[in-house]
């Protein structure tokens, strides 16, 4: 969006699960606010407040939205289908102007089939497709953590590194961010692969990870990998937090891409989208209840 519509703006972001961002927006009458990739359901009250103060809001997202406020000042682009990501919605709005980045975003959200279909007009070879897949995976990987200290790059820093590049291949070639993330990703995923499931059956598998930064960093990307490896099974990665609670990432079976958000919304601090969702703080004494609910959801 900023490549197509450059402007002076205030950037507000955070780790992947820090989604109640709209309430931090210091906007007033006549201002324009662009909201990307955070659930309207978790930001509705703040959006309503902005609209009431005369702020114009443009909203792109693919997570559960709930009731959408009725206002001429709200321009909504929300699609919760399992094969859609926010980057793709922006791409449609811009008429495909930066399709390479949209393909990268689809790969990052584990929507590989959709990414390959979207990439057809680009006429990429297999090596180029693999580069975009890796870039999407690494950008997604950097978002996961309980705090900014878990991440290799703060999200606002990463945005500023990526934003100048209209071509993702140019970013890969010229910026050392890619290599830094690749090294961290490879190390973390190697450790993740050594952990056996705490529970597994034909319909779902649950992995319980230790209270370490690598666990939180891989919670999304390792869940995505597991989902690709067994596409008929749901997967959950449960990481211990300092508080004794659990950070949970859930992936629905890729064969259906449904049910992850419905499962996670059964628990406080849970939410997400149909194919991928999570719980920010699952009380330890609800672990067994979560496993039971997951088995029921995906039976």
Q: What's the SSE blueprint?
A:
Layout: E1 32-36, H1 44-52, E2 56-61, E3 74-78, H2 86-93, H3 99-108, H4 112-118, H5 126-141, H6 155-162, H7 168-174, H8 177-192, E4 199-200, E5 204-209, H9 213-218, H10 221-229, E6 234-240, E7 246-251, H11 260-264, E8 270-272, E9 276-282, H12 287-297
Parallel strand pairs: 1-2, 2-3, 5-6
Antiparallel strand pairs: 4-5, 6-7, 7-9, 8-9
Helix pairs in contact: 2-3, 3-4, 3-5, 5-8
What characteristics describe this protein?
alpha/beta; Diaminopimelate Epimerase, Chain A, domain 1; 2 domains; 299 residues; 3-stranded parallel sheet; 12 helices
Care to describe what's here?
It is a single chain. By secondary structure, the protein is of the alpha/beta class. Helix content is 37%, strand content 16%. Strands 4-5-6-7-9-8 form a 6-stranded mixed beta sheet, sandwiched between helices. A hairpin with a 3-residue loop joins β4 and β5 (204-209). It is globular, with a radius of gyration of 19 Å. The mean pLDDT is 96.
């Amino acid at each position: 969006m900023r490549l197509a519509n450059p402007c002076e703006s205030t950037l507000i972001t955070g780790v992947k699960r820090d989604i109640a961002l709209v309430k931090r927006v210091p906007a007033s009458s006549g201002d324009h606010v662009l909201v990307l990739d955070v659930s309207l359901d978790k930001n509705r009250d703040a959006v309503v407040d902005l609209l009431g103060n005369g702020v114009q809001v443009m909203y792109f997202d693919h997570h559960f939205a709930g009731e959408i406020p009725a206002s001429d000042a709200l321009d909504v682009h929300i699609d919760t289908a399992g094969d859609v990501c926010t980057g793709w919605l922006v791409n449609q709005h811009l008429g495909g102007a930066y399709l390479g980045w949209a393909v990268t975003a689809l790969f990052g959200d584990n929507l590989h089939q959709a990414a390959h279909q979207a990439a057809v007009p680009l006429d990429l070879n297999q090596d180029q497709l693999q580069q975009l897949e890796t870039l999407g995976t690494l950008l997604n990987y950097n978002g996961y953590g309980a705090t900014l200290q878990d991440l290799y790059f703060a999200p606002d820093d990463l945005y500023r590194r990526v934003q100048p590049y209209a071509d993702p291949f140019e970013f890969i070639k010229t910026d050392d961010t890619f290599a830094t993330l690749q090294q961290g990703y490879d190390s973390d995923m190697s450790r993740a692969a050594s952990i056996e499931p705490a529970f597994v059956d034909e319909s779902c598998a649950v992995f319980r990870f230790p209270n370490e930064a690598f666990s939180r960093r891989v919670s999304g990307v390792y869940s995505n990998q597991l989902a690709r490896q067994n596409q008929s099974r749901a997967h959950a990665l449960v990481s211990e937090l300092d508080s004794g609670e659990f950070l949970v990432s859930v992936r629905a079976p890729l064969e259906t891409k449904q049910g992850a958000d419905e499962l996670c919304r059964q628990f406080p601090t849970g939410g997400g989208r149909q194919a991928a969702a999570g719980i920010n703080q699952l009380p330890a004494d609800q672990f067994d209840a979560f496993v039971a609910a997951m088995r029921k959801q995906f039976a």
